[in-house]
Design brief:
With about 325 residues, the protein is an alpha/beta fold. The chain has 12 helices and 10 strands. Helix 2 links the parallel strand 1 and strand 2. Helix 2 crosses helix 10 and helix 4 runs parallel beside helix 12. The relative contact order is 0.18. Pfam families: TctC.
Length: about 325
Amino acid sequence: MRRAGRVMLALCALAAWTPAQASDYPRQTIKLIVPQPAGGGFDTVARVLADRLAPRLGQAVVVENRQGAGTIVGTQAAAQAPPDGYTLLLGGLSNIALNPGLYPNLPYDPRKDLVPIGLAVSWSYTLIARKDLPQADLPALIAFARANPAQVTYASAGRGSGQHIAAAVTEHLAGVRMTHVPYRGAQAAYQDLMGGRVDLFFDISSTAMAQVQAGTVRALAVSSANRQPFHPDVPSVAETGVAALDMESWFGLFAPAATPPDVLDRLRRELAAVLALPELETVFARTGGRVLRLSRDETEALIRRDVERWTALVQAAGLRETPN
């Protein structure tokens, strides 16, 4: 009987235990996986959030850059991590909403393997052109591209990148054919754009804005549905009438799907508190970022909508990779 009692006590203790011991979470350092190299948009957002979450959680939040295969390697690592609240992911439009449409053999399902803690910030993309491009605006450029198939060139930071998708979907919706010139990173793309060796680059606005202000390139349009405060004189693609584009690159925190609800609730509360800081608005606004303060239902609806919408658009534009 004594042995049976001990077994019963052990079973009761096991039933009360959760992987992260949510009642006193966190008890150790939290790792935040960034699926791209240091210095890019993913990395910048991750470090801004990590620095402000750490004091609220009472534990260090360490950014770990784990790039490879675009954003796939790091995202897969986070999706397959123990669901204990100590490994999180900096997710964005590209690895959460674009990859499912691009890669038929994607080793993770963002809707089944990951759960959103919350979205933090979004940027539009800005379509920029070399300074000496003869066409004065986007409608004139599209008219030229329609009359001269494949002669207009556009750069990207690699196939499947946000820059590539923004330009290729615009090309598809406008019914024209241009030539994609992929580079290994945005820096090389900018060098050739400013050198006049490529015509266009649809880059995230936080980076493009600096070059526009420096006068090294020209801004033709932004990808969001409406004009942006940092480019008040630059129309949206939709406003020009050439294509019904509405694209913003958002970033937020995600956790493995089986993470305990109490842990997710704690992380959501602390992220919401960080996003409410007035300084955060200032930090992101400097580069054209828009802080997102969404409810859990709004967050899940936005992600679901974008996964479905971009999967359909990517496939319609012929961008889906052929299965091996």
